[in-house]
Design goal:
This protein is an alpha+beta fold. The chain is built from 8 helices and 7 strands. The protein has 2 domains: about 70 residues, no CATH class; about 80 residues, Winged helix-like DNA-binding domain superfamily/Winged helix DNA-binding domain (Arc Repressor Mutant, subunit A, Orthogonal Bundle).
Length: about 170
């Protein structure tokens, strides 16, 4: 094994190691540790005779190496995954979901949403600010009145798919 690869392998933490227990004939005869680095580079193999104390702590078994490699390549970058998690957090509040569903039907002003949902105007405004920041709602001004609606059909689709999933048996 090259010196660079040996040095890199020594820096791998136990949590980054995955035991490859694939069923193909070559892998049956060896116990090979695989590394899935954060930079999503190609998984490198360690020779079976190069073990460390950390090797005995490995509790995760990689059974389907090709599937793991395929999933690794398909993963979006960490920034996008973080943004997606933040996006879905917005759906974690019943008041915001109620507002979205009211706007799913028609555009409404803060006063109308307040009356419909029996929530103060200031609370509605606060939630609308969060929904607008997440690009789930938009507004338009007509004179002194500001009307809110869903930002686009994707938001309707997200709500519809969520309900469909929950109602699916």
């Amino acid at each position: 094994m090259s010196d660079a690869l040996a040095k890199k392998q020594d820096q791998v933490t136990p949590d980054e190691k995955i035991l490859d227990a694939s069923t193909d004939d070559d892998a049956k005869n060896t116990s090979v540790h695989q590394e899935i680095p954060d930079d999503r580079s190609i998984i490198e193999e360690r020779a079976p005779d190069e073990t460390t104390a950390d090797d005995t702590k490995c509790e995760v078994t990689m059974i389907h190496r090709d599937a793991v490699l395929s999933a690794q390549k398909a993963l979006p970058d960490e920034e996008l995954l973080f943004e997606l998690a933040e996006f879905f957090k917005v759906f974690g509040d019943t008041t915001r979901i109620r507002i979205l569903y009211a706007l799913h039907h028609t555009e409404l002003c803060v006063c109308d949403l307040s009356a419909l949902l029996s929530i103060s105007q200031s609370a509605i405004s606060h939630q609308l600010r969060l929904l607008k920041g997440a690009r789930l709602v938009r507004n338009r001004r007509e004179g002194k009145v500001v009307y809110y609606s869903l930002d686009d059909d994707h938001v309707k689709d997200i709500l519809d798919v969520g309900v469909e999933h929950l109602q699916h048996q």
